[in-house]
Amino acid sequence: MSYLEKLEKLIKQKNGTLLTSDLKELNIPRIYLSKLVDAGKLERVSRGVYVTPDAIEDEMYYMQCKYPKIIYSHETALFLHGLTDRTPFEYSATVPSSYKVVENISENFKIYYIKNELHNLGITDGKTSFGNKIKLYNVERTICDIVRSRNKIDIQIVNEALKRYVKLKSADYALLIEYAKKFKVEKLIKNYMEVLL
Fold it and tell me: What total of structural domains would you count in the chain?
């Protein structure tokens, strides 16, 4: 298989998106990327990010590929889990408190910081609306996050998410309380659950 064939296969697998880091992984010289751009098969949409002309730019996907420490959380995770109908105006993501957020992220994202030891708690796989795989927090972690950050989030979003959570067949109350203890929101979560259950 030639370099161009490898690249075209990869672009198809990634729903029309290619990162310069993908070339490194496959040991493909960058000249082949230039060839695809010159041929009109790829367009540069951001530093290190290229998409096919017929593809829709999947910012959630490529931003996480470029900055793997960002985990989609809060309002964005609520939306992806179906716990709100409100499409977020900007993406919400959580990073470890030791992480230096580059301007590219801070301009496009609502950033939440968390202690390093809690950053990986509750990470699960999800998909963007374009079908690309991303990392976000599971439902229980997301509920703890929004209760913890309730002063920064529209109260209607918080209330709606909690009402929808208690109706989920997959709701794991033991896990919710376990996370709530770690995030020091156990009392608040229990109060909300008493009202809703």
Answer: 2
